[in-house]
Amino acid sequence: MSTDVIFEPLHFRSLTVKNRIFRSNIAGRFDFYNGSGSRARINFEERFAKGGLGAIISSHVPVHIRGRILPNYATIDCDERIPFWRRLGEKVHEHGCAYILQLSHGGRQRDIPGVENDRSKGLSSTSKADPLHGFLCQAMKRDEIKQVTRYFADGARRAREAGLDGVELHACNGYLINQFLSSGINDRRDEYGGPLENRARFLLDIIGAVRQAVGHDFHLQVKVSAADHNNAVAFWEKKGNTLEDTIRVCKWMEEVGVDALHISTGSSFPHPLNPPGGFPLADAVRIYDTMLSSGIHTFRFYLLLRYRLLRPIFNLLWNRTKGDTIEGINVNDAGEIKRHVNIPVLCTGGFQTASYIRRVISEGYCDGVAIARALVANPDLVKVFADGKELPDKPCTYCNKCLLHVVEDPLGCYDVSRYDGDYDRMMQEIMSVFEPSL
């Protein structure tokens, strides 16, 4: 094991993780509507910690209720949330696994805003609705920008008080910080818009506020899209930030005290390149109706999914920029970013093959990998690698059914072929996260 790079400790400035496999940010609607956490979420996270992971990155944790992407996700928006996250962290730590809390704000990207947000538009860098779903939004005023910056800092302070191991800023995939960074989205004419230096100001202000709140001995990383590919579906939109833009931003982040970078792609979620793999239309039709009231373009999108005669239009738009790469789709971009910074770089994107993970780490593309779907399918993936196997017996098929179901169903692997066609056994496994319930 000592010669296997997968199992070498990864040393950050103020945190050491026991191996190079991280659980990327994923979870489901396990919690209470008011943002308080549940035992089901603790059970869910402990399942991965037991599997031998070096660290878990939480799913998106809203720093304010107006910034949540979906209801029934635990928040970090008040001090009353600290005891829950402390209990969760203690459970994860029992298995020698670190826990990094991802601080998020959806901005205009609110899949289901919730009843308390029904009468308010999403906050954003722009007042333009997103082109895919048509989520309505309003450009933030300066005082709102300062307030949300404070929300992130307060969230980081609460994570530290809860005894967690660090925080990650969600600055990619079309969420609020990405809405400021992206030249394809941000149309402001003040000091937060225009040139890249201005568009990065919001992110750099947040980093500064977080450092002021938690000091410099608490781990802080940022998840960022290497490139926006903002016109991947809506070809009439601007392309957005390039890899070269992101390299500049990453160097600035290093200068102001970020400890690590987590590389993804795309200015929306889902995106044709994130997560790579299939788009199960039958599941999408059943689930997408939940979102019909969320945006002004959702009914149009639903029609493209619902009717066979219209599906070729959807397939043309969704697949026109997709390639064949699934595992390691972001490796080259991560490697290019790593060449320009001196802090560790994590890479996400379909990883589940031991020899490939060893290669990308050994050859310097990244320092560790972050995995979501393949761990939902096989939470013990790290133990599989420790046993000398290349892949689990039933690997993830990249069908992406798990990510579609999460809008209204418990998160789990919904590929019944992995259960030999036994639907009841599949559901038993998915529902097991709710036991024990107390």
CATH topology: TIM Barrel
Question: Beta fraction of the residues?
Answer: 5-15%
DSSP summary: helix tally: 16
Radius of gyration: 20 Å
CATH architectural designation: Alpha-Beta Barrel
Find the CATH superfamily.
Aldolase class I
H/E series: EEEHEHEEEHEHHHEHEHHHHEHEHHHH
Mean pLDDT: 96
Q: Indicate the percent of residues in helices.
A: 25-40%
Total strands: the figure is 12
Number of domains: 1
Shape: globular
Q: Which strands sit side by side, in order, in the main sheet? A: 3-4-5-8-9-10-11-12
Largest sheet: 8 strands, parallel, barrel
Class from secondary-structure proportions: alpha/beta
Q: What is the end-to-end distance?
A: 37 Å
Question: What are the key terms here?
Answer:
8-stranded parallel β-barrel, TIM Barrel, two-stranded antiparallel sheet, alpha/beta, 438 residues, globular
Short description, anyone?
Helix content is 34%, strand content 12%.
General description of the model:
The protein is of the alpha/beta class. The protein has one domain (5-131, 140-277, 324-393): TIM Barrel (Alpha-Beta Barrel), CATH 3.20.20.70. Helix content is 34%, strand content 12%. It contains 16 helices and 12 strands. The protein has helices at 39-50, 82-93, 142-161, 176-181, 196-199, 201-214, 243-255, 281-288, 298-306, 311-319, 331-338, 354-362, 373-377, 381-386, 401-405, 423-431, and strands spanning 10-11, 16-17, 21-23, 55-62, 98-104, 122-124, 137-139, 166-171, 219-225, 260-264, 345-348, 368-371. Helix 1 (39-50) packs parallel to helix 2 (82-93), helix 3 packs parallel to helix 6 and helix 9 packs across helix 10. The chain is globular and about 55 Å long.
